[in-house]
Specification:
With 79 residues, the chain is of the alpha+beta class. The chain has one helix spanning 39-60; strands spanning 5-13, 29-32, 66-74. The longest helix is centred in the middle third of the chain and has 22 residues, at 39-60. The mean pLDDT is 90.
């Protein structure tokens, strides 16, 4: 059986002067990407997707900032 890792990227707003916790409850957006075959690939693909999304967002909204949290979900885990 082939094991897969699914990159899940959570995006959260950066609020000045407040603790910024980025998790499923505080996320403004969530992207579940295509499965990859190793944890390293999960990190690479997830970080690249997050950087591209944040860059585009901050160009469109120059006064707003996003942060992200990357989760690598194993294919056997429930959603």
């Amino acid at each position: 059986m082939i094991e897969w890792y699914i990159p899940v990227v959570l995006f959260c707003a950066v609020v000045p002067n407040e603790p910024n916790v980025c998790n499923g409850a505080t996320a403004l957006d969530r992207q579940e990407l295509n499965p990859v075959n190793t944890p390293t690939n999960c990190m690479i693909v997830g970080n690249a997707a997050a950087a591209a999304h944040i860059s585009m967002f901050e160009q469109e909204h120059p006064n707003k900032k996003l942060q992200f949290r990357l989760l690598c979900k194993h294919s056997t885990e429930k959603s």
